[in-house]
Amino acid sequence: MKIIILDDSLTVRMTVEALLEDLGVHEEEVFSFEEGAEALMHIEEHGAELVFTDMHMPGLSGYDFVKRLLHVRPELSSSLFVISGEEEKGAVFKMKEVGAYRFMKKPLNLEYFKHFVLPEIARIRVKEKQNG
After folding, report:
1. Integer Cα distance of 107 and 98 in angstroms
2. Which of 33, 54, 62, 36 is nearest to 106 (CA)?
3. Which string of DSSP letters, residue by residue, matches 56-95?
4. Exposed, middle or buried by CB within 10 Å (0-12, 13-18, 19+), for 7?
5. How far apart are CA 132 and CA 98, in angstroms?
6. Distance (Å, rounded) from C-alpha 69 to C-alpha 53?
7. Strand partners, 33
8. How many CB atoms sit inside 10 A of residue 46's CB?
9. Which of 38, 67, 85, 112 could form a disulfide with 106 if both were Cys (CB 3.0 to 4.6 A apart)?
10. pLDDT tier at 58 (50, 70, 90 boundaries)?
11. 109-114 contacts, C-beta under 8 A, 24 or more apart
């Protein structure tokens, strides 16, 4: 399993990593990035099954990251979670226009996180077993 976390906040990246660990994800399955271009390059070279991204970041915005990601890997749309500290309707609408439809509000809630992410992790694990 390859999970990507993209956020300009170290605190948020560490929080997502800890929540994933609580769900049984191994440290070596998680790749954390502060910069969108770096995350995109990693995904293009090594793939990804699950992606968490901040909506607002300096440099390559969350919107531009998602737009580029889903252009190259449209199948990740259902495995993409956008994390944001605000519910800016215009920004959410723009993200939905490019294919992002799963959103999580900061601060992250363990039960909410578990409810939506655990089924994704289970789906990925089953697929891994089927592919040998």
Report:
1. 24
2. 54
3. --SSS-HHHHHHHHHHH-GGGGGGEEEEESS--HHHHHHH
4. buried
5. 33
6. 11
7. 6
8. 10
9. 85
10. confident
11. 110/19, 110/22, 113/19, 114/19, 114/22, 114/23
